[in-house]
C-alpha cells in the first residue's frame, strides 16, 4: 500500500524526475554555498567529515562548568553590595586600624559566601545530571559494512547514518532517507517543538527509497549542502547530491531533534545538525542568573545604609580629629608624647583619616552580614515546604512540586503576568462530543461545566453572587458520565438506533456519515483486544469518529482510494459494511476554515461532505439548503455560550459531468508549478464548495487538564493577567481560549494577522512599497484601529481579547512597533499569540517583562517553552509525559497547571510577606543596635571605644536574634492556606508591594532609629549618677553596656513577637529561648576570667540591683509601645484585608454568621473580565434577560 497517495501528500511531493535540472535552480537552492548556506555534510563518510569540525551532539543547560564555576559563582556573590562591603572590611581587618581581630571579620564572610556558593553548585549539579541523562540516551548508528551499533547521543557526529525506532526521540536534526513504509513516509510528533500533539507527515526523497534495510548502507555515499544552523523550525533550504544527481531539499524531509517517531516502525536518517547547532537548541537561550526584585531593592537599601554608615563615620572621624588636636595635649594621663600616627596631635588630619577606617568597621553592624545567610537558609526551608506540600502531589505521576532554585521564592508572590503554553500545559488534547444539532433539532441532554456552574449559581438565589464558585466546582461533574473516552453524549433519541424513529431520519443518517467519512484519520486495530483507535490530525476528528462509532457508524479501514464504515442500523440485515471511494480531499487550514471530502458511494452517487466554521459554511449554502439555518444558528449560539467548540456540517450531491469538469481543473492547478500554485488550488476548491445543503452542527467540549478553568479563574480573581503563547493555529487557540474562559461570548476580539500574499502584493503596488513594508503598514493600521476601538468603548463591562498570529508577531516585535503592540495588549483582558516559534515566545516574554516592568511568570512543558521559561522572571516547568526539557530549564516544577494556583496564591503570598517582613525586621534590629555604638562613641569623645563587650557583638546576630527572625521567615502565616484560596484578592498585596515599599521600609528604619535613641538615652539617664550597688558605687561602662544590651535583646525580641501573626511552639521556643539564652550566656561568661570587666557582672552587680530590672522593663516598653499604638490604630481605622479576615476568624464569625462570611468572600476577588466567574456572570445576565422577556409569570423548576 503506497501511503503517500493518501490525502494530499502526493500533491506536495517534489518532482525529481529530472533532478539535475530541478536541483540547484529550484527556489532557494541557488543560495546554497553562499553566505548563510555554507554547511557541507558528507554522508556516511567520517574521513571527509571530521576536518570540517562541526560541534558534537553533547548539550548542556547548566550555568557553570568546572572551569567557570568558581569565577562565575564568586561574581554572583559579590554582585551583592553588602558582600563587597564585608570583603573590604575583611581586607582592612589585616591592618592596625581595625578594632576587631582579622578572624572575626574574615570567618563570617567566608561562611556566608561559601554557603551560598555551595547552594548554587548543588542546584546546577542537578541540571548537569538531567543533561547527562539526555546525552547518554542510545541510538543505532551505522558503523560500516551495513552494520549498526548503539552509541550514546553525545557521540553522534554530522554525517552519521542513524536508525530511529518507533516512539524514540530524534537525537539530532536528521535528513529522512527512508522508513518502514515503502513510500518513505513517517509520522512525527512535534509536541516538544511547537506544542502540537497531532502527527505531522514527513517523506523522504524518492531517490533514497531503496535504502530500506541495514545492508543497503554498506556503500551509501552522498553530500548535503545546506543552510547554516538557525532557529527557524519551519524552513530548510539545501541540496542533496546522490548518484550524480542533485535534489532540492525542503522542510518536509527534515526530522528535528526532540520530536518523536510515531506510528512508524523505524526510519533511517543522516545527521545534519548536532548539539547546540540543532534547531531546538538554537531556540534555547543561555541559563540566566535571576535575582528577585526584593533582593535588588535590598541592595538599594544597603546603599542607603552604607551612605548613613559613611556619614556617621565622617562625623566620628572629624570629631576624633578635633579632639586629638585640641584636647589630647591636655590629657597628660594618656601620655600624648608617646602617641603614634593613629592619634598624633601634630597630624590630626591623618589621625582622622585612620579613624574613619576604624569607624567604618566599628559601625558595620548597621549592615547585617547575617542577613544574606539567614535569607538563604529561610529560602531553602521555604523551598522544602513547597516540595513537601501534599496538595501539589500528583497521584497519577507520583511527582511533587519542586523548587529547583530557592532564589525566587518571594517573586512567586509578586507575579503580574502569567505567560502560558497551551498544549500539555492547559489542555490534555482530549475532546468530548457533548451535543449536536441535526435538522434544526438539538440533541444531547448533558451540560457543559459553564452551564452547570451558572445553573447552580442561579439556583442559590443570590443575586449579588455571594455563592463562592469553589462550592460549585466541587459538585460540578458529579452527575456527568463519560460513556467512552471522547464521548459524554447522552440522548436516547439518537442512541441504540432510536434515531431511525425520528422524523428527519434521512438527514440524521447523512449527519452520521459526514462524521464517519469527512476526516483524514487512520484507524489502528489492537490485535489483542480487537478495538480500534484513531490517529487523527486533531482531537476534534478523533471525538467525531468515536461519537460516530457510538451512534452505529464505525470507520474501521482505509485504503489508498477508499474508506470503509460498518453501519449498524441502516439495514434490516444488521451490521453492514459499506465502501466509499475517495475522489478528492480538500484539507482544512486556518485560511479556509473548512474541510471537504468528495466520495462515490456504492450506488455510484457522487457526494460532497463539508464541515467547517459556521460563518464559512453558511455563506456557501444554496437557497434550498437553508431550511434549518435559523434553528441551527440559535443552537450554535447556545453551544458557544456554554463554552463548547462548534462546527457546521453540510453536503451536496454532484452530477458526473459537473464533477469531471471541476476535477480536470483541480488537477491542472494541483500539478502547476509556481508561486501562485496555492492560490490556484484555493480558487478551484472554492468553486465546488458552493450550493451546499445544511445538515446540522456539532458541539464538543475541549477537555482541559484537570482544574485548569478553576485555576485560571482564581488567578484572574487574584488580579493576574494571563497570556497564552502557542504553536497551534489561530482557530485551535481561540477554541482553547473559550474552553478555559480566557474568551467568552460577548467579548470583542481584536485579531491581528498579515493579509494573504496576493493582497499584500496589491497593497504594495498601490503604495509603491515593498511587500514587507506593505505588511508592516497593514499591521500598524490594525493595531491603531484596535487601540482606537478600546479607547472609544463606553461600556465599563466591555471586554477585549487580542489574538495575533506568528507572522504578524514577527513584525509586532520589531523596535518601531513593539511598544504600540504592548500598549494594545495591556488594554485587553486576555492575549492569545498563535503559531509562535520558541524564539518568539522568549521575545514576547522579554517584551512583557521589560515593557510592563512587573514580575512575569512563564509556564510550559516542552522544549519549545525553554526560551520563555528562561527569559521570564520566574520559569515554571510542567513535569508531564513528554520530556523534561522545560523542567530542566525551570525555577519551579509542578505536575499540572492547576497546582500553579496554590504555588502562587498560597506559597507565593506567604513567601513574599515572610521575606519582606524578615528583611525589614533585620534592618530595624541592626539600626537599633548599631546606632547605640555611635551614640556611645560620640559620648566618649569619638575614641573608637565600643560600649559592648566583643563577645556580645559577635553573638548578637549569630545567636541571640537569629532564630526568631528565621522562624518569622519560615513559619509566619498572616492567614491559613484555605483562607488564601478563599480570598484570592489577598494576593494583590504582593504585586502592589505593600510590605516592601518605601513607606514600610522607612517606617521600620524609623522604628530602629527611635529604639536606638530610647535604649541609649534612657539607660544613660537612669545610670548616669545612680548608685547600683549596696556600697553606693555607680555603674561603670561594663554595667551600662550590659544593661543596654539586655534592653536591646528584650526590645527586638518583643518587637518580633508583636510582628508575628501565627505562633507555634517553635516561635515561642525561639523568641523566649533567645532571651533566656542571653541570661544563660552572661551568667556563664561572667564566671570565666576572659570576661574581664564583666566578671560575675550578673550575679554580683546587675542581678541584685532592682534598677537593672526596672530599666529593662521601662526601656523595652518604651521601645515597643509606639509600634503597638500604630498597629492598633491601623487595625481599628484603616485595616488591611488580612486584618479584617484575622478578626473574623478570631471572633469565629465565619462559623456563626455564614451570610457575612459569604459576602466577604465575594468581595475578596479582583474585578475581572476573564475566567470562569466572569463567564458565569455573563451567562446569568443572559438567563435573566431571557426570563425578563418571557414575563413575570414564568415559574422555574430546578431539577436536582
From TrEMBL:
SUPFAM superfamilies, per database record: Calcium ATPase, transduction domain A, Calcium ATPase, transmembrane domain M, HAD-like, Metal cation-transporting ATPase, ATP-binding domain N
Active-site feature positions: 421
GO cellular component entries: plasma membrane
Topological type in the membrane: Multi-pass membrane protein
Top EC category: translocase
Listed transmembrane segments: 300-322, 353-375, 922-945, 951-971, 1001-1025, 1037-1057, 1069-1087, 1107-1125
PROSITE patterns, per database record: ATPASE_E1_E2 (PS00154)
Cell compartments where the protein resides: Membrane
Protein keywords: ATP-binding, Magnesium, Membrane, Metal-binding, Nucleotide-binding, Translocase, Transmembrane, Transmembrane helix
Domain P-type ATPase N-terminal: 41-106
EC id: 7.6.2.1
Binding site for ATP: 421-423, 541, 588, 611, 645, 726-728, 835, 841, 864-865
Entry-linked Pfam families: Cation_ATPase, PhoLip_ATPase_C, PhoLip_ATPase_N
Binding site for Mg(2+): 421, 423, 861, 865
Catalytic activity: ATP + H2O + phospholipidSide 1 = ADP + phosphate + phospholipidSide 2
UniProt cofactor(s): Mg(2+)
GO terms for biological process, alphabetical: phospholipid translocation
InterPro entries found in the cross-reference section: ATPase_P-typ_cyto_dom_N (IPR023299), ATPase_P-typ_P_site (IPR018303), ATPase_P-typ_TM_dom_sf (IPR023298), ATPase_P-typ_transduc_dom_A_sf (IPR008250), HAD-like_sf (IPR036412), HAD_sf (IPR023214), P-type_ATPase_IV (IPR006539), P-type_ATPase_N (IPR032631)
GO function terms (MF aspect): ATP binding; ATP hydrolysis activity; ATPase-coupled intramembrane lipid transporter activity; magnesium ion binding
Domain of life the protein comes from: Eukaryota
Domain annotation P-type ATPase C-terminal: ranges: 887-1135
Family that this chain belongs to: Belongs to the cation transport ATPase (P-type) (TC 3.A.3) family. Type IV subfamily.
PANTHER family for the chain: PHOSPHOLIPID-TRANSPORTING ATPASE, PROBABLE PHOSPHOLIPID-TRANSPORTING ATPASE
Name by which UniProt lists this protein: Phospholipid-transporting ATPase
Biological source species: Digitaria exilis
Amino acid at each position: 500500500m503506497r501511503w503517500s497517495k493518501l490525502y494530499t501528500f502526493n500533491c506536495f511531493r517534489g518532482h525529481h524526475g529530472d533532478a539535475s535540472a530541478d536541483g540547484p535552480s529550484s527556489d532557494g537552492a541557488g543560495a546554497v554555498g553562499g553566505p548563510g548556506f555554507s554547511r557541507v555534510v558528507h554522508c556516511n563518510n567520517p574521513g571527509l567529515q571530521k576536518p570540517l569540525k562541526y560541534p558534537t551532539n553533547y548539550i548542556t543547560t547548566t550555568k557553570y562548568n568546572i572551569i567557570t564555576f568558581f569565577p562565575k559563582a564568586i561574581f554572583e556573590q559579590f554582585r551583592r553590595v553588602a558582600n563587597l562591603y564585608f570583603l573590604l572590611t575583611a581586607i582592612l581587618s589585616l591592618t592596625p586600624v581595625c578594632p576587631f581581630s582579622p578572624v572575626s571579620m574574615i570567618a563570617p564572610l567566608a561562611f556566608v559566601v561559601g554557603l551560598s556558593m555551595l547552594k548554587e553548585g548543588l542546584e546546577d549539579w542537578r541540571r548537569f545530571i538531567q543533561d547527562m541523562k539526555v546525552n547518554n540516551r542510545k541510538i543505532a548508528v551505522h558503523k560500516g559494512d551495513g552494520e549498526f551499533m548503539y552509541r550514546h547521543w553525545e557521540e553522534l557526529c554530522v554525517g552519521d547514518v542513524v536508525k530511529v525506532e518507533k516512539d524514540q526521540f530524534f537525537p539530532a536534526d536528521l535528513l529522512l532517507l527512508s522508513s518502514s513504509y515503502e513510500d518513505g513516509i513517517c509520522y512525527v510528533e512535534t509536541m516538544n517543538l511547537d506544542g502540537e500533539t497531532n502527527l505531522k507527515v514527513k517523506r523522504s526523497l524518492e531517490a533514497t527509497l531503496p535504502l530500506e534495510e541495514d545492508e543497503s548502507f554498506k556503500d551509501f555515499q552522498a553530500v548535503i549542502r545546506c543552510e547554516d544552523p538557525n532557529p527557524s523550525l519551519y524552513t530548510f533550504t539545501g541540496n542533496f547530491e546522490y548518484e550524480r544527481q542533485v535534489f532540492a531539499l525542503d522542510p518536509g524531509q527534515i526530522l528535528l531533534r526532540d520530536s518523536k517517531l510515531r506510528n512508524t516502525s523505524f526510519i533511517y536518517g543522516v545527521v545534519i545538525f548536532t548539539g547546540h547547532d540543532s534547531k531546538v537548541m538554537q531556540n534555547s537561550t543561555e541559563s540566566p542568573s535571576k535575582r528577585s526584585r526584593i533582593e535588588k531593592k535590598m541592595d538599594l537599601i544597603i546603599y542607603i545604609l552604607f551612605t548613613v554608615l559613611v556619614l556617621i563615620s565622617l562625623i566620628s572621624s572629624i570629631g576624633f580629629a578635633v579632639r586629638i588636636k585640641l584636647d589630647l595635649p591636655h590629657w597628660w594621663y594618656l601620655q600624648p608624647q608617646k602617641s603614634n600616627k593613629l592619634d598624633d596631635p601634630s597630624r590630626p588630619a591623618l589621625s582622622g583619616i585612620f579613624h574613619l577606617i576604624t569607624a567604618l568597621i566599628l559601625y558595620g553592624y548597621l549592615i547585617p552580614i547575617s542577613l544574606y545567610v539567614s535569607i538563604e537558609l529561610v529560602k531553602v526551608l521555604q523551598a522544602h515546604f513547597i516540595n513537601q506540600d501534599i496538595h501539589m502531589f500528583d497521584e497519577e505521576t507520583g511527582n511533587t512540586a519542586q523548587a529547583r532554585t530557592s532564589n525566587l521564592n518571594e517573586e512567586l508572590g509578586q507575579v503580574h503576568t502569567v505567560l502560558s503554553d497551551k498544549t500539555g500545559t492547559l489542555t490534555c488534547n482530549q475532546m468530548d462530543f457533548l451535543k449536536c444539532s441535526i435538522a434544526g433539532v438539538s440533541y444531547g441532554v448533558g451540560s457543559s461545566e459553564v452551564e452547570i456552574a451558572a445553573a447552580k449559581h442561579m439556583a442559590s438565589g443570590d443575586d449579588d453572587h455571594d455563592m463562592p464558585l469553589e462550592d460549585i466546582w466541587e459538585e460540578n461533574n458529579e452527575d456527568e458520565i463519560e460513556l467512552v473516552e471522547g464521548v459524554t453524549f447522552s440522548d436516547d433519541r439518537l442512541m441504540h438506533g432510536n434515531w431511525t424513529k425520528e422524523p428527519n431520519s434521512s438527514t440524521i443518517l447523512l449527519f452520521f456519515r459526514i462524521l464517519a467519512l469527512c476526516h483524514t484519520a487512520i484507524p489502528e486495530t489492537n490485535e489483542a483486544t480487537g478495538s480500534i483507535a484513531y490517529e487523527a490530525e486533531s482531537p476534534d476528528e478523533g471525538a467525531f469518529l468515536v461519537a460516530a462509532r457510538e451512534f452505529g457508524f464505525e470507520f474501521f479501514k482505509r485504503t489508498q482510494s477508499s474508506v470503509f464504515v460498518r453501519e449498524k442500523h441502516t439495514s434490516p440485515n444488521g451490521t453492514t459494511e459499506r465502501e466509499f471511494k475517495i475522489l478528492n480531499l480538500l484539507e482544512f487550514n486556518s485560511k479556509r476554515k473548512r474541510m471537504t471530502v468528495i466520495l462515490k458511494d456504492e450506488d455510484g452517487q457522487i457526494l460532497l461532505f463539508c464541515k467547517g466554521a459556521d460563518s464559512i459554511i453558511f455563506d456557501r449554502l444554496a437557497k434550498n439548503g437553508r431550511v434549518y439555518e435559523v434553528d441551527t444558528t440559535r443552537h450554535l449560539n447556545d453551544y458557544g455560550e456554554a463554552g463548547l467548540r462548534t462546527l457546521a456540517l453540510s453536503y451536496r450531491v454532484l452530477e458526473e459531468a459537473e464533477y469531471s469538469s471541476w476535477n480536470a481543473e483541480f488537477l491542472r492547478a494541483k500539478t502547476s508549478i509556481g508561486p501562485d500554485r496555492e492560490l490556484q488550488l484555493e480558487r478551484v476548491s472554492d468553486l465546488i464548495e458552493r450550493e451546499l445543503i445544511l445538515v446540522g452542527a456539532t458541539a464538543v467540549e475541549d477537555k482541559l487538564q484537570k482544574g485548569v478553568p478553576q485555576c485560571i479563574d482564581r488567578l484572574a480573581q487574584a488580579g493576574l493577567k494571563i497570556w497564552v503563547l502557542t504553536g497551534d493555529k489561530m482557530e485551535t487557540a481561540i477554541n482553547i481560549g473559550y474552553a478555559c474562559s480566557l474568551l467568552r461570548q460577548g467579548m470583542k476580539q481584536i485579531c491581528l494577522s498579515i493579509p494573504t500574499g496576493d493582497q499584500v502584493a496589491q497593497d504594495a503596488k498601490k503604495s509603491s512599497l515593498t511587500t514587507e513594508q506593505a505588511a508592516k503598514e497593514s499591521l500598524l493600521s490594525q493595531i491603531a484601529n484596535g487601540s482606537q476601538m478600546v479607547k472609544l468603548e463606553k461600556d465599563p463591562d466591555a471586554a477585549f481579547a487580542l489574538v495575533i498570529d506568528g507572522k504578524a508577531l514577527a513584525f509586532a516585535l520589531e523596535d518601531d512597533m513593539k511598544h504600540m503592540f504592548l500598549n494594545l495588549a495591556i488594554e485587553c483582558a486576555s492575549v492569545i499569540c498563535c503559531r509562535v516559534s520558541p524564539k518568539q515566545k522568549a521575545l514576547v516574554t522579554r517584551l512583557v517583562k521589560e515593557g510592563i516592568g512587573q514580575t512575569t511568570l512563564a509556564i510550559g512543558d516542552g522544549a519549545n517553552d525553554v526560551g520563555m521559561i528562561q527569559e521570564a522572571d520566574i520559569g515554571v516547568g510542567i513535569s508531564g509525559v513528554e520530556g523534561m526539557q522545560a523542567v530542566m530549564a525551570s525555577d519551579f516544577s509542578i505536575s499540572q497547571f492547576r497546582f500553579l494556583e496554590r504555588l502562587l496564591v498560597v506559597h507565593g503570598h506567604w513567601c513574599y510577606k515572610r521575606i519582606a517582613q524578615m528583611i525589614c525586621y533585620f534592618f530595624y534590629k541592626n539600626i537599633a543596635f548599631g546606632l547605640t555604638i555611635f551614640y556611645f562613641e560620640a559620648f566618649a569623645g569619638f575614641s573608637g571605644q565600643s560600649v559592648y563587650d566583643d563577645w556580645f557583638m559577635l553573638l548578637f546576630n549569630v545567636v541571640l536574634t537569629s532564630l526568631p527572625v528565621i522562624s518569622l521567615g519560615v513559619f509566619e502565616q498572616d492567614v491559613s492556606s484555605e483562607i488564601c484560596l478563599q480570598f484570592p484578592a489577598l494576593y494583590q498585596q504582593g504585586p502592589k508591594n505593600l510590605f516592601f515599599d518605601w513607606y514600610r521600609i522607612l517606617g521600620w528604619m524609623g522604628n530602629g532609629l527611635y529604639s536606638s535613641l530610647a535604649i541609649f538615652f534612657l539607660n544613660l539617664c537612669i545610670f548616669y549618677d545612680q548608685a547600683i550597688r549596696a556600697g553606693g558605687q555607680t555603674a561603670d561602662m561594663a554595667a551600662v553596656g550590659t544593661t543596654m544590651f539586655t534592653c536591646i535583646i528584650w526590645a527586638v525580641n518583643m518587637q518580633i513577637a508583636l510582628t508575628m501573626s501565627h505562633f507555634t511552639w517553635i516561635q515561642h521556643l525561639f523568641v523566649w529561648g533567645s532571651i533566656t539564652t542571653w541570661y544563660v550566656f552572661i551568667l556563664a561568661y561572667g564566671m570565666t576570667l576572659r570576661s574581664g570587666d564583666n566578671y560575675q557582672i550578673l550575679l554580683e552587680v546587675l542581678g541584685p540591683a532592682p534598677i537593672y530590672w526596672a530599666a529593662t522593663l521601662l526601656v523595652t516598653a518604651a521601645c515597643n509601645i509606639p509600634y503597638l499604638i500604630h498597629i492598633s490604630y491601623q487595625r481599628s481605622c484603616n485595616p488591611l484585608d488580612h486584618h479584617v479576615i484575622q478578626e473574623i476568624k478570631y471572633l469565629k464569625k465565619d462559623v456563626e454568621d455564614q451570610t457575612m462570611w459569604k459576602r466577604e468572600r465575594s468581595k475578596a476577588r479582583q474585578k475581572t473580565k476573564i475566567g470562569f466567574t466572569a463567564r458565569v456572570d455573563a451567562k446569568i445576565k443572559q438567563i435573566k434577560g431571557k426570563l425578563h422577556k418571557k414575563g413575570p409569570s414564568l415559574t422555574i423548576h430546578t431539577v436536582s
